[in-house]
Write a structure and sequence with these properties.
The chain has 10 helices and 12 strands.
Length: about 350
């Protein structure tokens, strides 16, 4: 009887390990609590490794040796599988951004956690990164304008745009978008401003080029997948996928989702809609942008920059040098350099 229970337990452990390692295959990547578990694939790999080690230690006891060895094998295979997934997305990350050319565009996104991050800090980093587009979830237009003024004083002019949801308290109800005048004049579309078509709880800003030329720019912010917001979170990801049509689109922001959660939402091999994730494409897709209190390899890569096929990502950077600066934000900035495709 005990032997039968041991076999049953080992089978259940194997099924569980397979599901959390490959959630997209089973189409459970956006279900609670799988969505929360797979957000931290680095920690998941470490947990499996520790479980394998513990099982090997327990195998010293003869009565449970067979069961312990079974668990050790299952956990060991799961560790290797998760490390392989992380490695395919970049592992420990790649080198700094390539040299910027006249045709290059740099896009930066940073969830600033509202007043936790001083405008001068945002401006200095954006200027140092030579950013042409800056998406700032949880940032009011007043803060965004102060950032733009600080950037102007540093010789880097930007226009500030925003969208807000008055029903959402605190600065999470506002998303600011800065765009360089060199890209032309932009305006946020009416449905972003009045909320008739937007993400559910925390707003996104869709900006169109006034001239009709240049990319559509989307500053994205999806609600966090807390148990009471799971359906809203799923709806937000689908809405963001719809914004990545087959036109010319650059989207950046806090998606509160990793690429695992976007499984099935991409078109023709893209990550989300017709957009492809730049960090994965350039070898930084495994580095966590949240929380900055964790080492990047154990964090959740939930902030993204992505674009349609009109753009080719030539480099990306998850900025970790700011972790100990006391900016106050629990997110890391993500910067991507794009080149026109073809």
């Amino acid at each position: 009887m005990l032997r039968l229970l041991g076999i049953l337990a080992a089978v259940l452990c194997a099924i569980t390990a397979t599901v959390v390692t490959f959630p997209g295959f089973f189409r459970v990547e956006r279900l609670y609590p799988i969505a929360q578990i797979v957000s931290f694939r680095g920690i998941l790999a470490l947990a499996f490794a520790l479980a394998a080690l513990l099982a090997l230690l327990l195998a010293i006891a003869r009565p449970i040796r067979g069961f312990a060895f079974s668990i050790a094998v299952i956990a060991g295979v799961a560790t290797v599988a998760n490390v392989a997934v992380l490695a395919s997305r970049g592992g420990l990350g790649t080198d700094p951004l390539p040299t910027k050319t006249d045709a290059s565009i740099r896009v930066m996104t940073w969830n600033t956690a509202g007043p936790a991050t001083p405008p001068d800090t945002i401006a200095k980093i954006a200027v140092a990164m030579d950013a042409d587009i800056v998406a700032l979830p949880e940032t009011t237009i007043e803060t965004g304008e102060r950032v733009a003024l600080a950037m102007r004083d540093l010789g880097h002019r930007m226009w500030a745009h925003h969208a807000e949801d008055p029903s959402t308290e605190w600065d999470a109800g506002s998303t600011t978008l800065l765009i360089s005048p060199e890209l032309g004049d932009y305006a946020v579309i009416e449905s972003s401003l009045d909320g008739t078509s937007n993400t559910s709880t925390v707003p996104s800003a869709v900006a169109m080029p006034v001239s009709g030329e240049g990319p559509i720019v989307v500053a994205a912010h999806a609600v966090a997948p807390r148990p009471s917001y799971m359906q809203s979170w799923r709806d937000d990801l689908r809405w963001l996928a719809d914004q990545c049509g087959d036109g010319n689109v650059i989207m950046a922001g806090d998606f509160n989702a990793t690429v695992d959660h976007m499984s099935g939402l991409g078109v023709d091999g893209a990550t989300l809609g017709h957009c492809t994730d730049a960090a994965v494409e350039t070898g930084n897709g495994a580095l966590g942008t949240w929380s900055s209190a964790l080492p990047a390899v154990f964090g959740a890569p939930i902030d993204h920059v992505m674009a349609t096929s009109q753009w080719r990502a030539s480099g990306s950077l998850v900025l970790r040098s700011n972790d100990e600066s006391g900016s106050g934000s629990d997110h890391r900035p993500l910067i991507v350099q794009y080149e026109p495709a073809g």
